[in-house]
TrEMBL record:
GO terms for molecular function: G protein-coupled serotonin receptor activity. It is a multi-pass membrane protein. This is 5HT6R protein. SUPFAM superfamilies: Family A G protein-coupled receptor-like. Keywords: Cell membrane, Disulfide bond, G-protein coupled receptor, Membrane, Receptor, Transducer, Transmembrane, Transmembrane helix. Residues 1-84 form the G-protein coupled receptors family 1 profile domain. GO terms for cellular component: plasma membrane. InterPro entries: GPCR_Rhodpsn, GPCR_Rhodpsn_7TM. Pfam families: 7tm_1. It comes from Calcarius ornatus (Chestnut-collared longspur). The chain crosses the membrane at residues 27-48, 68-87. Residues 113-134 are annotated as: Disordered. It is found in: Cell membrane.
Length: 134
């Protein structure tokens, strides 16, 4: 005796596999971005903190070297606005909407009214006048 298969079963399994594959790619990309950001943070700031502790214990760190390590940490903070758009598409889109240098010419800047309507979770209201609102 064979039980006939529903036609949606192979589609459902391939669709769930595609769904899982898509999310695993997103998770991998998010992990990679986080790893790069944290790696750069530790490479830039760990020498500063180790030197700071050594300076407190033995007072043997030259002032110029300490300044170089401080500026290395500052450079890391400068790199974050460069790293985020490189690895995060949503961040790039959001910045492109509000910065005139990054906006595409065919994409108009949204007005404050359209943004508030989009964020209010309500559709267009029929026959709403100023008298009804006040």
């Amino acid at each position: 005796l064979q039980v006939p298969r529903a036609p949606s079963q192979p589609l459902a399994s391939s669709e769930s596999r595609r769904f899982t594959n898509k999310h695993s790619k997103k998770a991998l990309k998010a992990s990679l971005t986080l790893g790069i950001l944290l790696g750069m943070f530790f490479v830039a700031w760990l020498p500063f903190f180790v030197t700071n502790v050594a300076q407190a214990v033995c007072d043997c760190v030259p002032a110029g070297f300490f300044d170089v390590l401080t500026w290395l940490g500052y450079c890391n903070s400068t790199m974050n606005p460069i790293i985020y758009p490189l690895f995060m598409r949503d961040f790039k889109r959001a910045m492109g909407k509000f910065l005139p240098c990054c906006r595409r010419s065919a994409e108009p800047r949204p007005s404050a009214i359209s943004l508030s309507m989009r964020n209010s979770n309500s559709g267009p209201r029929a026959a709403t006048s100023l008298k009804n609102v006040l």
